[in-house]
Amino acid sequence: LTGVEDETGQPISAMTILSLLERVAGIIDNVQAGQQRMEERQLELENNIKNIQGDVLKLAKDHTTTNGTVEKLLQKTRKVSANVKDVRTRVEKQNVRVKKVETTQNELLTRNKFRVVIYQG
Amino acid sequence: LTGVEDETGQPISAMTILSLLERVAGIIDNVQAGQQRMEERQLELENNIKNIQGDVLKLAKDHTTTNGTVEKLLQKTRKVSANVKDVRTRVEKQNVRVKKVETTQNELLTRNKFRVVIYQG
Amino acid sequence: LTGVEDETGQPISAMTILSLLERVAGIIDNVQAGQQRMEERQLELENNIKNIQGDVLKLAKDHTTTNGTVEKLLQKTRKVSANVKDVRTRVEKQNVRVKKVETTQNELLTRNKFRVVIYQG
Predict the structure, then answer these.
(1) A52, A69, A116, B32: which has the fewest C-beta neighbours closer than 10 Å?
(2) How far apart are CA C78 and CA C66, in angstroms?
(3) ipTM of the complex
(4) Do B55 and A52 touch (CB under 8 A)?
C-alpha cells in the first residue's frame, strides 16, 4: 500500500502534515519578523555608531585646536615670565642706583648745611 | 482510509507536500543567508565599536594631559601675575623716591645758584 | 488512488515526509538559536554604544570646561603681558629720570668740590 503511515503503522492524515507545515510556516514567519526587527535595530546601531564617530572626530579636532592654543599659551607665558624677570632685574639695578643717588644727596645736603652755617658765621 | 486528503476530502499528492517542503527550504535558506549577512555586519559593528572605544580612550588620556597642562598654566599665570603686581608696586615706590630725589635736587640746584650769585657778587 | 507518490510514481512513506519535517525543524531550531545569540550580542552592542555615548558626552563637557579655562587664560595672559609692557615702559621712563638725576648730581658734586677748594684756599 502507498498510504501514508507513521512508525506504528497508524495512518497519518494529510491534515496532520499540513498542520505541521502550517506550524513550520508560523515559526518561520516569527523568525523572519525577528530578523526584520534585528535588521532595523542594526541599522539604528550603525547610524548611532556613525554619529558617535562624527562626534569623536569633531571632539578630536576641537581637542587638537585647544591643545594648540595651550601650547602657544605655554610659550607666551614662558616669554611673559622671562620679561617679568628681566623687568624685575632692571628695577633691582635701578633701585641700587636710586639708593646711591639718595645717599649722595644726603651727603650733599649735610655739606651744604655746613656751608650755610659757615656763611652765616 | 489512510489516503492523504485535504479538508474537503480531496487527495493531496506527495508532490504538493514536497513542493511545500521545498518552498519552506527556500525560505529557510534565505533566512540563513540573511542571518549570515547580519552576523558579518554585527562583527563589523563590534570592530567599529572597539575602534571607537580606543579612540575615545586615547582622546580621554590626551584631554587629561591637556587639562593637566592647563592647570599648571593657571598656577604659573597666577604666579606671573602676582610677580608683575609685586614689580609694579616696587616701581611705584621707586617712583616716589625718584620724585623726592628730583625735588631735593632742584632745591639744591636753586640754592647753589644763589650761592654762586653771592660769590660772584 | 489517493496514495502519496513522488515524481516517478514511487510511493513516499509518511516517514520520509516526517523525517524531512524533522530536519526542517532542526534547521529552524538552529536559526532561532543563532537569532537568540545575535539578539543578545545586539543588546550588548547597544549597551556598549550607550556607554560610549555617555563617555563621549562627558568628554565633550570636560573639553568645553577646559576650553573655557583656556579662553580665560588667553585673556588673562594678554592682560598680564600688557601689564608687563606697561611696567617696563614705566621702568624705562624712570631710568631716564634716574640718569638725569645722576648726571646732575655728578655736576653738583664737581661744583661743590671746587667750592670746597676755594674755601680752603
Answers:
(1) A116
(2) 18
(3) 0.78
(4) no
